[in-house]
Amino acid sequence: MRTPFRSIERASLPRWVVALTALRSSQWAKNGFVFAALFFTPDALTPEGLGRVSLGAVSFSLVASATYIFNDLMDREADRLHPRKRHRALASGALPVPLGLVALVLAAASGVLIGVTLSTEFLIILGFYVAVSLAYSLRLKRVSIVDVFIISLGFVLRVQAGAVLIDIEPSAWIIIMTGLLTLFIALGKRRDDLVTGMDDAHRSSLRGYTKGFLDASVTAVLGALMVAYLIYTTDAGVAARLGDDRLYYTAPFVLMGILRYLQVTMVEERSGSPTRIALTDRFMVSTMLAWAGVFAWRIYA
């Protein structure tokens, strides 16, 4: 079995390299949600629009990395008790706290400076995301149910941020589906916490969850998500705006992707990082590419 990068002795690496690992660049894939409004708005897909949204994604990535470092600083003692998180730069001691603070400030400042060049509305959303993330790290992650909704809200804000950069109002269905999808993933992550033996000594919100409750919650959210997607792809207004009345051709790929994640979570019990699964599970990758390809074919061809 291959040794994961996190198990490498980080003390032997240059401090600046260790600081870069604290940014959690592998999590930047989450900021693909900034492109959602652009993808679903063919008329806005211009070089200028793509450039602005790309800069917005970079800005969000850097600011999100700053919030990750802040969270790791707050949780470094508890993370040392976790089988995976104990390898993080701050929890392992490979990155001293002062250097962690420097990395935090540099990442936040860089992200905000890019945001300033884009728009005031984008900057407001970015600031709200930071406020929510700080509230999550300081208090809200300890409150069951609220914790998973806050995670979901972070993705909805990404979609909103991308929309303001191309000067459109995202449809209610995109916001609803983003919220449901990311709530589903967050609930799966909490279930993984229980499966791996984590208790409320590490994450106090876990005292409000059981596997049975999470299984029922995931099933309910999954059902709502599929209904929302089917309504979206058959809605007359959506069909008129996108110029296609057969977007429901993409529904099987959405269902297969969701069921695969559900299988990974409940059958194989190895949900772990949703980002890692989305990027490494062949079935998930194939399904997402197929969905994107068919959807793009329907609205761009």
* Overall form: globular
Give helix % range.
Answer: 55-70%
Q: What is the overall number of helices?
A: 13
Mean pLDDT: 84
- Rounded Rg: 20 Å
| Beta strand % | under 5%
Summarize the structure.
It is built from 13 helices and no strands.
What does this structure look like?
Helix content is 68%, strand content 0%. It is built from 13 helices and no strands. It has helices spanning 15-22, 36-39, 47-79, 89-92, 97-116, 120-138, 146-165, 172-195, 211-234, 236-242, 251-267, 274-280, 282-300. The longest helix has 33 residues, at 47-79. The chain is globular. The N and C termini lie far apart (44 Å).
Write the layout of secondary structure elements.
Blueprint: H1 15-22, H2 36-39, H3 47-79, H4 89-92, H5 97-116, H6 120-138, H7 146-165, H8 172-195, H9 211-234, H10 236-242, H11 251-267, H12 274-280, H13 282-300
